[in-house]
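ugh ok so i messed up the first submission bc i forgot one of the chains. this is the corrected input, ALL of the components this time, i swear. 622 residues overall. if the numbers dont match what u have on ur side tell me asap before i send this to the collaborators (the ones from the other lab, u know who)
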Amino acid sequence: MQQSDLHTVTISEVGPRDGLQSVSGVMPTADKFKWIDALYAAGLREIEVASFVPAKLLPQMADAAAVVKHAVGLPGLTVMALVPNLRGAQAALEAGVHKITIPVSASQAHSLANVRKTREQMVEEVRGIVRWRNESAPKVPVEVGMSTAFGCTIQGEVAEDDVIALAAQLVQSGVDEVGLSDTTGMANPAQVRRLFTRLRAEIGERAGAAHMHNTRGLGLANCLAAWDVGVRTFDSSLGGLGGCPYAPGASGNVVTEDLVFMFEAMGLRTGIDIEKLIAARAPLMAGLPGEPVYGMTPEAGLPRGFRGHLS
Amino acid sequence: MQQSDLHTVTISEVGPRDGLQSVSGVMPTADKFKWIDALYAAGLREIEVASFVPAKLLPQMADAAAVVKHAVGLPGLTVMALVPNLRGAQAALEAGVHKITIPVSASQAHSLANVRKTREQMVEEVRGIVRWRNESAPKVPVEVGMSTAFGCTIQGEVAEDDVIALAAQLVQSGVDEVGLSDTTGMANPAQVRRLFTRLRAEIGERAGAAHMHNTRGLGLANCLAAWDVGVRTFDSSLGGLGGCPYAPGASGNVVTEDLVFMFEAMGLRTGIDIEKLIAARAPLMAGLPGEPVYGMTPEAGLPRGFRGHLS
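and heres the new structure output, hopefully the right one now
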């Protein structure tokens, strides 16, 4: 295969944020460092390491600033943090993150349950964050991960027109990237293709990552569908850790190990060494004893004769 | 949607054969009847109900003739049986099956392990079966499910040219349909698209079903990939029961419930009522106490507001 034929995929690991904030246990800071180091050693170059929220709401994230400060020491790593509001964004930028991501719900009902704000109030919050970023850290991209873009466990169906209109409004507000999240595991491949195609038509290169859940087993099929229509960045979580505690019945981020196996087996380059990725489960499990981890590829092992690009 | 725009998918349920012959327990004949009736009630119209092999090798299939005789009483159901040799085919045709399926391995090593014959000996066996069929039951189609078409746990990689050449040889031998099986869970979506595209180019409308496994979590993604290149019949197993005992490390048929959910959610018609399909797990579990069943959709439940074509 010639160099020019190579397709690359970016895997954005969300376990240290999305995973850890969804479990009841609290991973000690030193264990987070070891886990993030292991993810980095496996080749991950974009990691969402923390959420800047009040420690009394999410004690799992009380050490967010310390975790960011550690992660920015890893050369070439894009260190992301989730911020739900301006105060969080200020703290994240002060800690030195390279990119911030803001959750904005397509569903009004989910927005109120998740961040106690309407969609419109969240857009206003995003504007404030963008203004602050423009003044204090103009090189730090602001991404929105649009929650419940494919359906909502509270309100049911979410109109596709609403998703696209909200994305356009966010870009007009100065957001650099808008990705779509299947917070509730309701997406199907046909819908994924339709929505990401419309998203790209509406906001062009500002169309961002696919964040899929495996709630009904369709996680990888939905990632494949997104790849087919041009998505090149995928969120996933080592061991499938996490989900959304505010979307009743929802569970299960796409498993990083299985996602990387799929793309590497297809001949695409993730930059990740699967064997080292599987080894990165050890510090996760050591830092969070008793927490179940998932993944079919680690359980079955790599196929005989399988060679990823880095193995 | 106009009638002419509707796409339909055939789900070929293999649980009563592939599933039951892979577990250690033996489901009593009366329970098999109840389970098959429940699958039929859910809308399944193609079921592989038995394997015609010596009872001393597979005691789970000792009642194959009785099960076929029951199943052919269900109007509109295509009753399939697996046969590894001429003797099995004779017994299956005598029992009254509507379609027979023969496993032929693309991998020489797997062929020897699975049926103690070389690939070439199996092609010869297939010719004998076709001759017998032509004389005794000319309307009964003969299908080959090509095992290890996407890789083999024993020999490793299987050359795509070998798969296509074998398919052509089988069609020349009088086989009506050749499907491709990912016996070992090694397939990836790019390979699935390539191989089924080549298969159709080589043998046209005689290209048959996709039989995918979920060993590394890619089962549904591979089915989606097969759908994309024109495959319209998919094997799967209720509760994910089964696998291949002769392919070490392989496990896990695609789960019928998740597969039907994916296609129905995409707006395709399977003819299956998912709620009744999930209800068909009860007689399976009653007839095989303690045997684990899988499936994400039954566990998560259908999404709020979800409507399949028949619900």
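quick check: Strands of chain B lie at 10-13, 46-51, 78-82, 99-105, 142-147, 177-181, 207-211, 233-236. that seems consistent at least. Residues 1-5, 244-248 of chain B have pLDDT under 50 and may be disordered.
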